[in-house]
Design a protein that fits this description.
heterodimer; A: Dna Topoisomerase Vi A Subunit, Chain: A, domain 2; 2 domains; 4-stranded parallel sheet; 6 strands; globular; B: alpha/beta; Glutathione S-transferase Yfyf (Class Pi), Chain A, domain 2; 11 helices
Chain lengths: 199, 381
């Protein structure tokens, strides 16, 4: 039984399948769409279809892109001897925002997690090894999430790359910038001590 | 540490119960099933973020309601007050814990801030049950004293579940797990060797506390020993690296057997804390009385140990222990914590509790009936 129009209910149902959207918000969004003018709704619908039709995975780094190879892989300004390995396309965005990294990326598409049915064959690890095997890479930076699954992925990938002879590094874990040492919890501080560097 | 106020809302059989506690002994009286233990469980939500029974949040919600709230005011030994709140909502199954109004991201961030020692009937398993009960005792005590240990433990358990899955998948597919097992073994070895070493270190630190508690309980008649036995630590005083090597060797040797079993067979999750009195295993040879003495001794030692380690007097919860213990042990138990601590004690019959101890401190008596506090009495002995 519908208290509003059936198509509003249907739209709300679709919205509620999105991450972070509950039933109430889904209804608000659906009613908002109803109030939007026709060209804006057309544009929204077209944008939804476009991401499915135009976006694909870069054949080199597996990041999402509309042109293959992607803008980063085909740029002449990037340092091609350096590859930063991340879990998801979002992580590429995060690292890019720093404006500090001028190398290339490799998106694995997740982290190892047997409990979720994700094993080495489900990640783009083979593709990474092929890229490195083709030569010209001096350093591979592993930038996984600082949790158990990210850590296992770091260990697994580094075991495979190390025999190939290049430098394998990982991003540091530890204290956030702008915080005081005395306020850091012991666990974070002990990780930071573990990953200490020579000055 | 002192708990001054507690509010339970839609918690077990308490629709709305507000209590003000005394700094000394707080006696909760009532027949079985009236809701005495539920009050202790509420206290455990403030200190550990969950029930000390290990009951799930959903089962603690009062029947027919949509969630619970536990709120308490805790004062540190130094006199600083903290309002701690734990709110659980059935739709979505989310629990929010906050201290002083700011939300805590993970439950583990709460553990150790407000130390707690619990003695309940199910703890009889520590001396009489299997090794898992003794590891649980070890883990909860050390976790409250060390954040690093707790983090390692969380990581170890997660890595163990992942590794077991790889082994199980391999078993079901009738193949060897191959290189998919390696990163999980690496993680297990890294955190597992640290856990085993920390437990061993704890047992060393803990021994004098147990000796002191036993001397107070039994005089010089009975001499307790605690020994941490781990496959990861084949020798005494090993370095983290050596322990890691030993763990790796042992787990490497077990791989075929592990694949057959479909689960991890080596590691600190299989270790044992051996307890004995006068060099005889408690589990095999102790009398009923010795079991009780040992358990009370361990809990008293835990109380003093946490007090020293956390620089804060733990709260003590004693759930229905006086029907099990004789008057002599009861008196010691209360006497030993009386000097410094606040205790919450449930009993069906007040005559079982020697209330004349607790020199000078305020004590309170609550009568609980059908999830309501029917009678309160504050007095000074």
């Amino acid at each position: 039984m519908f208290y509003t129009a059936e198509s509003v209910e249907q739209l709300a149902e679709h919205f509620s399948q999105l991450p972070g959207i509950g039933k109430k918000t889904a209804h608000r969004l659906a009613l908002f769409v109803l109030k939007m003018d026709r060209p804006s709704v057309d544009a929204l619908a077209a944008a939804l279809i476009a991401v499915k039709e135009k976006v694909r995975y870069c054949s080199i780094c597996s990041n999402i892109t509309e042109t293959d190879p992607c803008a980063i892989c085909s740029s002449s300004k990037r340092d091609r001897t350096l590859i930063c390995v991340v879990q998801e396309p979002n992580d590429v965005l995060a690292v890019e925002k720093t404006n500090e990294f001028r190398g290339l990326y490799h998106v694995l598409g997740g982290a190892l997690s047997p409990l979720d049915g994700i094993g080495p064959d489900d990640l783009r690890i083979k593709e990474l090894l092929e890229r490195i095997g083709a030569g010209g890479v001096d350093e591979v930076i592993l930038a996984m999430n600082p949790n158990v699954e990210g850590e296992a992925t770091t260990l697994y990938v580094s075991r495979l790359i190390k025999p190939l002879g290049m430098r394998v590094t990982r991003i540091a874990r530890g204290l956030p910038v702008g915080s005081d040492l005395e306020f850091a919890d012991e666990a974070t501080l002990s990780r930071a001590l573990e990953g200490r560097v020579a000055v | 540490m002192q708990l001054t106020r507690l509010l339970l809302r839609q918690f077990r059989n308490h629709a709305e119960t507000a209590l003000e506690f005394s700094p000394g002994l707080n006696l909760l009286l009532g027949d079985n099933g009236e809701g005495k233990t539920n009050i202790l469980e509420g206290v455990s939500y403030l200190c550990l973020g969950r029930s000390f029974h290990g009951a799930s949040d959903a089962t603690v919600v009062q029947m027919g309601t949509n969630g619970f709230l536990v709120r308490g005011t805790l004062a540190s030994d130094g006199g600083v007050e903290f309002k701690v709140e734990s709110v659980y909502e059935v739709p979505g199954g989310t629990k929010r814990v906050s201290v002083g109004g700011s939300e805590i991201g993970r439950r583990t961030d709460l553990i150790g801030r407000f130390p707690l020692v619990v003695l309940a009937p199910e703890h009889a398993g520590i001396t009489a049950g299997g090794p898992a009960e003794r590891r649980r005792f070890l883990d909860l005590t050390v976790s409250q004293a060390s954040r690093i240990y707790l983090e390692d433990l969380v990581e170890y358990r997660r890595a163990l579940r992942q590794r077991n899955r790889v082994l199980l998948d391999a078993k079901l597919a009738r193949r060897t797990p191959g290189s998919a097992l390696e990163p999980w073994t690496d993680l297990l070895v890294r955190t597992g060797s640290r856990i085993a070493l920390r437990r061993q270190e704890f047992v060393e630190e803990f021994r004098p506390y147990v000796d002191r508690a036993f001397a107070a309980l039994t005089g010089t008649r009975e001499h307790p020993t605690l020994l941490y036995a781990s496959e990861v630590l084949p020798e005494a005083s090993m370095t983290t690296e050596a322990a890691g090597e030993a763990f790796r060797t042992a787990i490497g040797a077990a791989e075929r057997e592990e694949t057959r079993a479909g689960t991890t067979l080596v590691g600190p999750h299989r270790d044992e804390l051996e307890l004995s009195i006068n060099d005889r295993s408690v589990r095999e040879f102790a009398s009923q009385g010795q079991h009780k003495t040992f358990l009370v001794g361990l809990k008293l030692a835990e109380f003093s140990y946490l007090k020293d380690r956390c620089n804060e007097t733990p709260l003590l919860l004693l759930d229905d222990v006086f029907s099990e213990l004789d008057a002599h042990r009861c008196r010691h138990l209360l006497d030993l914590v009386a000097h410094a601590g606040q205790a919450f004690v449930t009993a069906t019959d007040e005559r079982l509790v020697p209330t004349d101890v607790h020199g000078g401190a305020m004590k309170s008596r609550f009568t609980i009936q059908k999830g309501r506090v029917e009678h309160v009495e504050h007095s000074r002995t």
